[in-house]
Design brief:
homodimer, seven-stranded mixed sheet, DNA-binding
Amino acid sequence: MNDRIFVTAHDVARAAGVSQSAVSRAFTPGASISPDTRARILTAADQLGYRPNLLARSLINGRSNIVGVGVGNLANPFFVETMQLLSRALDDAGLRLLLFPADSGATAEPSIHEILHYRLDALVLLSVGLSSTLAEECRRAQVPVVLYNRTTLDDATSSVIGDNQIGARTIAAHLLAGRHQRIAYIAGTAGSSTNAQREAAFFAYLAQQGAPAPLREDGHYDIAAATAATRRLLTRPDRPDAIFCANDLMAIAAINVARHEYGLDVGREISIVGYDDVPMAAWPAFSLTSYSQPAEQMVAQTVRLIRILRDDPDAHQDVIVDGTLMLRGSSRSVANPSAYATTTNIATPRPD
Amino acid sequence: MNDRIFVTAHDVARAAGVSQSAVSRAFTPGASISPDTRARILTAADQLGYRPNLLARSLINGRSNIVGVGVGNLANPFFVETMQLLSRALDDAGLRLLLFPADSGATAEPSIHEILHYRLDALVLLSVGLSSTLAEECRRAQVPVVLYNRTTLDDATSSVIGDNQIGARTIAAHLLAGRHQRIAYIAGTAGSSTNAQREAAFFAYLAQQGAPAPLREDGHYDIAAATAATRRLLTRPDRPDAIFCANDLMAIAAINVARHEYGLDVGREISIVGYDDVPMAAWPAFSLTSYSQPAEQMVAQTVRLIRILRDDPDAHQDVIVDGTLMLRGSSRSVANPSAYATTTNIATPRPD
DNA sequence: CATCTTGTTGCATACATATGCAATACCAGG
DNA sequence: CCTGGTATTGCATATGTATGCAACAAGATG
C-alpha cells in the first residue's frame, strides 16, 4: 500500500524549537506572533517542505473554500466560456472548483449526494435543473445553491440568468422588421427555464404584433436533434424564411443544414438567429445573428453571490443580466435597426 | 457570521443508542457490525440527515479521493471533449475532480501550490507544461503527476499522448501523395512537446522523401495567431497549396481565412489539414482532414494510470495511443489512400 | 519599585471520523 | 457446566490544524 508520510506542523515546530501553535500562527495572516519567530518558522517550514494541510484546516473552520460546480452539456460553447471564466474567477477569489458531471437532463447526478458533504461553500449548477428533492437535500446539508442560466420556483436558491424575455422579444421584433413571412422556432430542452422563457416571450410578442403563430420543432439544445429539426422544417412545402433557434449551437447546426444540404443562401433566402452569442458566432463561416448572454458579467455575478452566501446562506437573490442583439450576416439586414430597438441593446459588430 | 451546525456521527450514535464507532462502521462497507444495528443506525442517520464528513475521513485516510486537473486553454475543443470524458470517468471511479486554471504558457499557475496540499490522489495536467520546479514540488508533496497530451523528460512523471511522430508522418505522406508542391506548416506553441514532435517528424519525413523544406509560421495553438499566420502565407507570391496546422483549432482558422478572405476553394485550390479530429472537424462547414487523437482512449488510460499511481506512486509510465488519419474534403483526394498507409490507420468517414 | 499594559508563547482542547485493541455476548461442542 | 471460538461492540486514540485561555516577559507609567 501507499503510506505517504507528510510533514506536519509538529515537525516544523520541533525543527524551529517552538510549539505547534506557533507554526499555525506563522501561517495565519494577522495572528499574534513576533516577526522573527515567524521568519524562523517559515524558514524551517520551507526547508522541510511543509504546507498546511487544507483538509484539517477546513475541518476546523467548518468551511472548505470549495465550490461545487455541476455542468451538463459542455458541447455548448457558452458553457465552455463560462467554465473558463468561472475557474479563473473562483481561483482569484481563493476558492477551489470541484467539478462534477450532471446529466443534461432535468436533475443532477447521484454523485452529487456525496459531494454535498464536502462542506461546500456553495453549489453552482450550470444549466442543470434543480429537482425539489435535491433542493431539499442542499438545504439540509446547508449548502447554498446558485443556478446559472436557469431559474426555479424554489425560494431558497439563488440564480443568475440573462434576460430571456427581452432577448426573445428583440429577436422577434428583428425578424418582423425584416419582413419575414414564415417564422419558425427550434426549441431547447423541454422543461428548461431558458427555453420556457424564450419560447413564451417569442410567441407572445409575435402574437401581440398580429403575426401568425410560428412553426415549432424540438431541438433539445443538441446538434443532432437540431439538425433533424431543421431538415423537417426545410423539407416542408411552406418552407420558413426565418428560424429562431433557442441557442447558438442549434443555430449553427441549422446553418450547416440550410447551406450544405439545401443550398440556401443563409442571410438572404433564409434568416437564422441564435441565442448566447458564443465566440463561434462571430466566425465568418457562420456570421450568426445572436442575442448575447454576457458570460463575464454572469460569472462575476455568480461569484459575487457566492461570497455573500458564504457568510449569510439566507441572502439568496435572483440576478438578471442584460444582453445585446448582435446583428450579423445570417439574418436579413434592416435599414434602421434602432427603429425597433426600444427595449434593449443592439450592435452590429465587425467580424473578428 | 455563518456558523453552520452539522449533524455528526456522535449525534447519530446518541439517537441510535450506540457508540460513534458503530456509526462509522455502519457507513464502512465490510466493517464488523451486525446487520440490524447497521439498519437501526442508517435509519437514525437518515432521520437526522447525517452524512459522513468527507474532509475528516480524508484527514484520517491520508487520501482525499480528489484528483487535481489543471487546464490551460479550453478554446480548443479537444480539451473540452477531454474534460467532458474525464469528469465522467473520474466520477465513475469514485474520484472527485478539482479543476484549476493553468495559463496555457509553459508552466502552471500559482494557485497550484496551494492545491497540491489537498493530499490529491493525483495531478493531471491537460496540455500544460511541467516546469522542473513544479515537478520537484509535486514530488515533495508526494502527488503523482500525469501529463495529458504532453511529455517531459522528467523521469518521475507519467504521461498519456497520441503518436505525434506517426501522425505527422502520415499527414506528410498524404500531402505528398496529393502531389502538393508548396507545403506549409503552422506551428503550435513553441516549447510544447506536441508541437516539437509533430514539427520534427513532419519536416523529417518531407526531407527524407526529397521534398523541399516547408514554409513555417507560428500559430501558437491560437485562433488569432493562426489567422494572422494564414494571412501571411496566403499573401505570398508563392502561395502554398497545402497547409498542415498543428491542431484543428488553427486549421479551422486557416479555412476561414482561405475561404472567406481569399476566396479559395479549400480542398481543391488549397489543402488544409489539422490534428486532433475534434467533433467540429466533421461538420460540413469545415470537413477537415485531420489526424485523430482518440480522447476516450486517452482519458481511459489517464484514469487507469491514476488508479495505479494511487497505490504505488512510483509506478510511473508513458502511454502512447494510436490515432487515425480522417480523410475529408479539406484536402485533395487521392485515388488510393492505402497506397501510403504503411504505418497507421486511415479512414474516410461520412459527414455527420 | 510596584503596577499596568502590551505583545508573545505554549497548553489544552476541539473539529469529525477511522480503527486497533480489549471486552462482551453468544453459541456449539465436549 | 465448562471451554473455545466467533461475532459485535465500545474505548481510546490518531489524523493535522486552529484558537481560547493562561502564563510569561518586557516595557511603560505612576
